[in-house]
Amino acid sequence: GTNYAVHFLIEAQNAGYTLPAGMFDELIRYQKTKANNWVPNSENFYGGDISQAYRLYVLALAKKPEMAAMNRLRAFEYLSVAAKWRLAAAYQLAGQAAAASGLINGLEQTVKPYNQLSGTYGSDLRDEAMIMETLTLMGKKSQAAHLLTKVAARLGQDTWYSTQTTAYSLLAIAKFCGQNSSSNKLQYNYVLDGAKGNTNSEQYLNTSALTFKNNTASITNTGKNVLFVRLILQGQPIAGQNNFLPNNADVLDMSVAYKTLNGRNLDPTSLKQGTDFYAEVTVKNPGKMGFYEQMALTQIFPSGWEIINTRLSDNEGALTSAPYTYRDVRDDRVFTYFNIRENETLIYRVLLNASYIGKYYLSAVQCEAMYNNNISATQAGKWVQVVK
After folding, report:
1. Residues of the chain with pLDDT under 70
2. How many other CB atoms are found less than 10 A from the CB of residue 94?
3. Cα–Cα dist 155/112, whole Å
4. Distance of alpha carbon 65 from alpha carbon 63, whole angstroms
5. How far apart are CA 132 and CA 101, in angstroms?
6. What is the CATH number of domain 253-387?
7. Where are the beta strands (DSSP E) in 130-201?
8. Which residues 6+ apart lie within 8 Å of 187 measured at CB?
9. CA atoms 246, 230, 124, 53: torsion sign
10. Tens digit of pLDDT for each residue in 239-281?
11. Contact at 8 Å (CB) between 371 and 161?
12. Distance, CA of 293 to CA of 296 (rounded, Å)
């Protein structure tokens, strides 16, 4: 996490943003200490080398390379392919082009599909974006261009990607475009609902806010570059009409119940004012995709219900729940973060009170892996009432 944050701050500084006085020097001092003290061991053997390579890359990007630490890592017998690519970028930034070329000589430029739920939160797309950046830094334009097409195509798909993957893909593309600027302009004509116009720009990206009446649009490329056109539609579903959210029990099984304090099932659609009750969410990992880490359970409650925070009354044990790594209790919602083993079932409870008379919307309950949206389960929302 520190590497990622320091990298962000360096890129921000390079883009012209000002960092608080002293922050940069303190961060670099810390990174240098970590880099020089790093040694492979049983705790960081898997993934530890790429974290160290990334740390050395960040220092080189900050123009503070640690050559001794870089050389020690290069000599590591079990250095992974991903770490070699990161370390090569560090050597290139440090002005050691021969060392960079020697590290990547004969390495594959494609990565087998994978997706980490923790560790470095890596994925095959993120790693290929890092490879593209390394090739760009080394001046290997044709090889980088091949990966650029591949990375851009995947980003253009209607597919979810983690913040780590998305950020690094965009960064690598931006660096390629900066290193390989084209004199050709972004040129095209367009017709929107019968109204004609044209764009003539030096930029790589042009966006326009549109309001369609007749639902028709056409784009004609009048320039020499290949254009990629995307139409992005945004909207908000009608309240209660969110049954399109899936609950895939083969991957993650979740059920939600509302119960009296005696444990009897309760219909939340109509509650008498002053009723104390609790929400009970049961989450099961069917075991088909292994151990799930970094899980997040989101419960947003109607404004007519009050969350009874048992922590404040020093009575947290009154309503037991399964262990969690962190729980954030707010005025109208509760976020619960946890890990769950194969074939394990966890139950989480929140104590509530039907406080204010009226009709309110109970939002959908969502449970998901924060770094893999294929692991998710949802129960749709609905209208509820608090009555006298």
Report:
1. 42-46, 179-184, 212, 237, 239-246, 313-318
2. 21
3. 17
4. 6
5. 14
6. 2.60.40.690
7. 186-192, 195-201
8. 198, 199, 200, 201, 221, 222, 223, 225
9. negative
10. 666 555 567 789 999 999 999 999 999 999 999 999 999 999 9
11. no
12. 9
